[in-house]
Amino acid sequence: MSPAPISQTAVTSTSVTPQVNTPTPAPKNFDDMFHTKFMHIIQEWKNDPTRGQLTQKDRKSFIETAYSETDDSFFGRRRLSDHEIKLQALTKVFYKVLAEEPWSEDWIRAPDVERKLSKFEMNKDTIALAADHGLLTPRDAVKAAREAALKHQEALKEHAKDPKKNVKDLKLSRGPYDEIEIIYIAGTVSSTATNKIDRENIYPVSVSSVANVLQNHICRDMVRPFSMAERFINCTDVSELEKMRKFACDVCDFAPHLLDNDNVSLLVVLLILPRSDCCKRFENNGIRVEGSTISHRKAECMKNKMGWNTSELKKPYDAFASEFQARVRNACNPAPRTRVNKVKPRKSVSMTPGMHGTPSAYSSPHMGYMAAPQVRTGSLPGVNGYSSPGPSASRPASAPRVRSSVGSSAAEPMDLS
Fold first, then answer.
1. DSSP 3-state assignment of 229?
2. Average pLDDT of 190-197?
3. What is the mean pLDDT of the segment spanning 203-222?
4. CA distance 217 to 266
5. I want to staple 379 with a disulfide (CB 3.0 to 4.6 A). Which of 25, 102, 151, 411 is the partner?
6. Going along 234-333, which residue ranges are E strands?
């Protein structure tokens, strides 16, 4: 094949290529894509002349709409690996957490809520103290405790700016929130069953403890849920796994309302702790919640909150939960190392008399006639001056055994055998 002919009109000198303004590529990260879509929805809302005040319901709707569009663009229209399928399921959980903000006091129900739903009640021993501070419901008490804790933290930050001041000089009152207590009443099948629950056996918790768990919710400062999902999937650091387990345990002990079937925090906790551990912690606090109840709550939450109403849709979450629970368990409760005792091989010893070697467990048999050992008459019980045939027959069973060297006592002559 001959080379192509050179055109006579070709330009031999280097030509300058004109700069073209290329559009900015769309963000490849899920959270960046979500942020772009969410801000676009917010801008459209602002441009609407008929809009009203932005409500919590509007915010939740905007987040869910932006997430749905991002999920379709990021995960849709392509075949996903097992890793991506799990990542997609966890991302949906954490975006639901972002939309609903389960750490809000609004999730603490009123005392007169429907019988099937769980609730907090004021501990009868601290009702008077709470009433003196105008706190009549558990929700009001927890909210006040949380606000007081935030003011306390802000005061400490301001005080820390001046190194000359001593923290001890800063007199801050913690208020009555360590003494005001509430108890958790699990939902039952009837109001009669709820009334029969023995409140005396339920361990009360201070409202400051509940407020602390809500304030330090593992997702409260989360702004990138996709990154949070990646953090869970890729986490192998022992200290990080221990922090996650502590959060889950604190929820069971101090904020059990986060494990109700309408609170998506239930799915976060069940990623970390198995159902049996949650029930044990409930039982230790005097709260009776069966394992089947936890499973029912989980199924209801998956169906109503996540839209996972088939086993195929639930499978990615369940598969990773089992894997991650084992990872947490191995990190926080490692199995004890089995000690292997190495047995040294025993050297063979000749039993022939006169041969030197390593002594065996039993001495060689004596050869020939041997006289009986001389025993002092009267010093030891016996017949005809000889000791009794059994070594322990003449000694009472309760008599203590005194250990001494052989032949060190006149009553115990040296054995010459």
1. helix
2. 81
3. 95
4. 12
5. 411
6. none
φ, ψ for residue 150, nearest 5 deg: -65, -40
Closest CA to 323 of 89, 31, 92, 94: 89
- pLDDT tops 80 at residue 329: yes
CA angle 316, 322, 327 (to 5 degrees): 120
Q: How many helices (H) and strands (E) does the chain have?
A: 13, 5
Among the listed ranges 7-16, 39-48, 72-81, which one has the minimum average pLDDT value?
7-16
Q: Looking at per-residue confidence, does 11 or 131 come out higher? A: 131
* More reliable by pLDDT, 236 or 77: 236
In a 3-state reduction of DSSP, which class is residue 377?
A: strand
Q: How far is CA 136 from CA 49, 108, 187, 276, in A?
A: 41, 14, 21, 35
Q: Which two tokens stand for residue 148?
A: 């007081």
Task: Name the helix (H) or strand (E) containing 276.
Answer: helix 275-284
Residues in a beta bridge with 206? 181
DSSP string, 126-192: GHHHHHHTT--SHHHHHHHHHHHHHHHHHHHHHHHT-TTS-GGG-----GGGGT-EEEEE---SSHH
Distance CA 279, CA 289 (A): 6
Round to whole Å and give the CA distance between 35 and 85. 22
CA distance from start to end of the chain: 114
DSSP code string of 89-118: HHHHHHHHHHHH-TTSGGGS--TT--TTS-
In this prediction, residue 297 has a pLDDT band, given cuts at 50, 70 and 90, of very high
Contacts of 288 (CB under 8 A, 6+ apart): 186, 282
Q: How many whole angstroms separate alpha carbon 105 and alpha carbon 258?
A: 11
- Tell me: pLDDT of 371 over 50: yes
Residue 73 tokens read as 């663009």
Residue with tokens 């004596």: 366
Only one residue has tokens 């909150």, namely 305
From residue 383, alpha-carbon distances to 126, 309, 409 in Å are 82, 91, 21
| Mean pLDDT for all residues in the chain | 80
Give me the residue spans of the domains in the chain. 222-249+258-334
